[in-house]
Amino acid sequence: MKFLECAPLDRLNDFLDNLNLGERTIKGCLEAYSCKHSGADKKLSVSLSNEILDYLGKSSSDNDSPSPVESLSARTSRKTLVYLVLALYHMYPDYDFRYLSIL
């Protein structure tokens, strides 16, 4: 994944930086990343996908009742989760999100 500069997001970030709503204040930012894997992202993506598939195999054999994890059986859902975890890695490089995908 690669961080993408996006001028319209800069304007939105200025707005979201300190949005006062009376008793509440919102502090936030928006960032854009490409979804094309490069370098270490490819290895991490494959690793995360395999961990999810392993977890799905174990959870389905342990429990026959429906669970929210079943939505990850769809390839598109797993891919979206991997993209989100990779984005977190890029946004917060000091944290380890390796086990986030199997929670």
From TrEMBL:
InterPro entries attached to this UniProt entry: Maf1, Maf1_sf
An example Gene Ontology biological process: negative regulation of transcription by RNA polymerase III
Short name of one Pfam family: Maf1
Gene3D superfamilies tied to this protein: Repressor of RNA polymerase III transcription Maf1
Entry GO CC: nucleus
Any GO MF annotation of the entry: RNA polymerase III core binding
Name by which UniProt lists this protein: Repressor of RNA polymerase III transcription
UniProt source species: Trifolium subterraneum
